[in-house]
Specification:
With 91 residues, this protein is of the alpha+beta class. The chain has a domain of 61 residues: Alpha-Beta Plaits (2-Layer Sandwich). The chain has two helices and four strands; from the N terminus they run E-H-E-E-H-E. Strands 1-4 form a two-stranded antiparallel ribbon. The protein has a two-stranded antiparallel ribbon with strand order 2-3. Strand 2 and strand 3 form a beta hairpin. The structure holds iron/sulfur cluster (2 copies).
Length: 91
């Protein structure tokens, strides 16, 4: 017989809002924005699956919420100007 969602525990997998869970500790590489290359198109903000690219107001350069960024590299991959480089975390 195939397993269904009914076979999963009744509790949610995450017991807290992801806003409260510091997922940035999972990261082994971090995005670093080069403002000299950035054209503030905000494609990185649009694509980040964790809402970890922060733009306080239109016209600002993007910054990264390192408490929640998991280092997936999607922002770097999608940036049309190559303005985000992934750098290895120093442990
Ligand atoms: S996608 Fe690249 S160029 Fe566009 S805002 Fe983000 S860092 Fe800047
Ligand atoms: S590395 Fe991934 S999680 Fe971190 S800011 Fe970029 S897209 Fe978001």
């Amino acid at each position: 017989m195939h397993r269904t969602y009914k076979d999963l525990p009744s509790e949610p997998v995450a017991m807290q809002s992801t806003e409260d869970i510091i997922t940035g500790t999972w990261r082994s590489i971090r995005p670093v924005v080069n403002e000299d290359k950035c054209i503030r198109c905000y494609m990185c903000w649009k694509y980040c699956p964790d809402m970890s690219i922060i733009v306080e107001k239109e016209g600002d350069y993007p910054t990264v919420d390192l408490d929640h960024c998991k280092g997936c590299g999607i922002c770097s991959n999608e940036c049309p100007r190559g303005a985000i480089k992934m750098q290895r975390e120093v442990l």
